[in-house]
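WARN  no MSA supplied for this record, continuing single-sequence
INFO  ligand: flavin-adenine dinucleotide
INFO  echoing inputs
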Amino acid sequence: MAESNNHIDFLLIGQGLAGTLLAYFLAQAGKRVHVVDQYNKRAATQVAAGIINPITGRRYVKSWRVDELIPFARETYHALESKLDIAIYHERNILRTLFNSREENDWMARTGEEGYEHYMLDRAGLKAYAEKTVPAYSYGEVRHSAQVDVGKLADAYRAHLREQNAITEERFDFEKLEIQEEGLRYGELEARTAVFCEGYRAKDNPFFNYLPFGGAKGEVLIVRIPEAGFEKILKHRVFIVPLQDSLYWIGSTYNWKYEDDSPTTEGRDYLEARLRDVLEAPFEIVEHRAAIRPAVKDRRPFLGRHPELPQLAIFNGLGTKGASLGPFWARRMADFLTENVKLEEAVDIGRFER
Ligand SMILES: Cc1cc2nc3c(=O)[nH]c(=O)nc-3n(C[C@H](O)[C@H](O)[C@H](O)COP(=O)(O)OP(=O)(O)OC[C@H]3O[C@@H](n4cnc5c(N)ncnc54)[C@H](O)[C@@H]3O)c2cc1C
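INFO  complex generated
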């Protein structure tokens, strides 16, 4: 293709965390990228805390592929911090409330297992939580966890794309898409491949809506707790996540059934009640937000090209764990798109029948 601003290699649709990371890796590979995104303050990326938590669930098991995901995520976010001159990766231990002796025993047993001592501490250091929260039966502490300001990353990357004239800020219009033999046109733009990174809105994508998208709504509160001084993350039914200026992210709810993506009174009441259960300090609610996670039933991302139209591809399904999954799989998706490196079966959309 001739080199001009309108001739590009990849057209990306959607610039949440998935689109941001993929755009970054494609640009790193020397490809010309243009993004179409309609900013939405209710996109999952704008509402998420961005917690990277290596030990999850009631059985305290390591998250899928976490030994590879976390070091790669850390390296990628640090590289983006330098490139965009922002601070987004905050290494923070997670304190996890253990509600009874059974939970405490399970935790202690797990800390002794091979591969777990790297992430789990048998003694938790409560620090400021000791004075400002209701004491629980016991606590475990997770390390090599982090909180990533994924919304701030998407905003900074959007500013970078604007500077490069590489973003069109509008709702993608499927009527304007013309699929050609060797590529496609979108208005004035000609590209080899379009990659859809639309988050949960992919369920309305006429080419990829055969994939089993779920979508799980989550609501969160942003609260001010003056003088709390918490530095670690606490998980006591809900998460308390330090942001900045005495602000904390409290969340979240998790619903597979919902009418829309608006915040609800029930969601707010639930979160406020959970916070009151644990916090012994006054707080003020500053914001109440909601979004829909691009969650999928088998909890594995969606990567690949359309089975009949290879000009169209998808990078989605980051679910509840975009902050840790995103960098690693965006890099693999970029390698697949640019070098034809085979995708792993677990994430390849070829696992679903069209
Ligand atoms: C309440 C909540 C808490 C969360 N907490 C965490 C957490 O602690 N840790 C973690 O790792 N993950 C967390 N997540 C999950 C995380 O947010 C997601 O995994 C990730 O942000 C998904 O990114 P995405 O780019 O796929 O989707 P999105 O963030 O939804 O971005 C999609 C983008 O595409 C745009 N778009 C869609 N369709 C079109 C169209 N047709 N035309 C133009 N633009 C379009 C949207 O406007 C948006 O900008 C949380 C999510 C929620 C909702």
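The chain has two domains: 7-46+151-212+299-351, 93-144+216-293.
INFO  checksum written, moving to next record
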